[in-house]
Amino acid sequence: MYINVLGAGLAGCEAAYQIAKRGINVRLFEMKPNQKTPAHKSNDFCELICSNSLKAARIESAAGLLKEEMRRMDSLLMYCADRCRVPAGGALAVDRNLFSAMVTEKIKQHPLIEVIEKEVTEIPDDAVTVIATGPLTSDALAEKISSLCGGSMHFFDAAAPIVTAESIDMNCAFAASRYDKGGDDAYINCPMNKEEYEAFYDELVTAERTPLHNVDVQNPKVYEGCMPVEILAQRGHDTLRFGPMKPVGLRDPRTGHRPWAVLQLRTENSAKTMYNLVGFQTNLRFPEQKRVFGMIPALKNAEFVRYGVMHRNTFLDSPRLLNTDYSLRSNPAIFFAGQMTGVEGYMESASSGMMAGINAVRHIQNALPVILPKETMTGSLAHYISDETVTDFQPMGANLGILPPLQEKIRDKKQRAAAYAERALEILKEYMTQ
């Protein structure tokens, strides 16, 4: 007896691990290294394409709560992430190469997981199957999934550039975290005065972009969390100063004042030899990225080891298609996991893989599915993507707004978030001991 898992990304690897730890054999299909999408560079599993940040670390936040729930449910990816973390202030960021390598090793060494390196072009019908091929599913399989599900939706996703540490002009930059949280080595800050920012802004919004096929280049449907910086800037002259370039909580030691605008750089690896441009996902042509981003004083001589790219993502109309256990309503032997279900974010994808893997095992055991309560972040995401009352379905990341309201009203935001987290973890504990 075995279960098929298609795709060795975050959702697929988590699903495979959860299945195998329950004593069921796994056939894990992955088309790398024989075939890669334009966004993939590494041969390892769980390649982090957009950013190396897994969002907020503190439990009293939506993202932090989700990760803590996953830790308590023995998540392979959280185990690896905690051991590959790099300084990132209040966020959990990882050395992406070490993280992918560790997950790959854990998966390949598991005696119940057979890795099959080939592209899957048909949905297997020989066993229960978890489809976790991600937002960059190959065209052939995407067509089969679309046919199975009666069509799918798509949007565009973008990644930020990465520069070498030694090419950053530290005479024009300073190390600090906002409000001095997380240590001074978490971020490198690239400040700009008003004149520098305005010149940069004017060039950014008029810079040449890479053409996107079969889409409105000026107004593509883009996942909000990965909005290209040049499109975000078009919303208003000061949009960036209230977004990825906000100077709040930072003080330039050279002037003693808060800068007009700041680009933050986050360490990309444990050796701190590379940094990514936080919030600077982009679809500009490569020469334009070097030219325009080079207008930021600290990056005037920056060496780009990876330019930003933009690529297609696909996701299902899950409220019409999926059950809360991530199984397909029309065929409960098929499960979906990852971003294609409409969960948004690295750990959100992994959490869906966790639950899909657990429930795939429950299915072949003829047992009731594991449906976590809505009060948990993991459960609330599963309930959201399967809620038939949701009409204009869009990808959703972990956030406190999808949790049921607290019984008592708490005005203080931090106290309210802490109360949500305390309730969620207590309910999860009770559920796991049943």
Fold and architecture overview:
The protein is of the alpha+beta class. It has 2 domains: 2-152 and 316-432, 3-Layer(bba) Sandwich (FAD/NAD(P)-binding domain); 162-312, Beta Barrel (Elongation Factor Tu (Ef-tu), domain 3), CATH 2.40.30. The chain has 12 helices and 17 strands. The chain has helices spanning 10-20, 62-72, 76-83, 96-109, 139-149, 194-206, 229-233, 286-293, 318-321, 346-364, 377-385, 413-432, and strands spanning 2-6, 25-30, 53-56, 85-86, 91-94, 113-117, 129-131, 153-158, 162-164, 174-175, 187-192, 261-267, 274-277, 304-306, 310-315, 327-328, 331-336. A 6-stranded mixed beta sheet has the order 6-2-1-7-17-16, with helices on one face. Strand 12 (261-267) and strand 13 form a beta hairpin. Helix 1 packs parallel to helix 10 (346-364) and helix 2 (62-72) packs parallel to helix 12 (413-432).
**Series of H and E elements:** EHEEHHEEHEEHEEEEHHEEHEEHEEHHH
For CATH, the homologous superfamily of the largest domain is named as FAD/NAD(P)-binding domain
How many structural domains does the protein architecture include? 2
Rounded to an integer in angstroms, the radius of gyration calculated over CA atoms is 22 Å
- In helices, the fraction of residues equals 25-40%
If helices are DSSP runs of H or I spanning 4 or more residues, what is the number of helices?
12
Structural class estimated from helices and strands: alpha+beta
Strand elements, count: 17
What oligomeric state is this?
single chain
**Uncertain segments of ≥5 residues (pLDDT<50)?**
214-218
Strands ordered across the widest β-sheet = 6-2-1-7-17-16
CATH class of the largest domain: Alpha Beta
How would a textbook summarize the main sheet? 6 strands, mixed
CATH-defined fold name of the largest domain: FAD/NAD(P)-binding domain
The shape is: globular
User: Proportion of β residues?
Assistant: 15-25%
Mean pLDDT rating: 91
- What's the CATH architecture of the largest domain? 3-Layer(bba) Sandwich
Q: Alpha-carbon distance between the termini? A: 27 Å
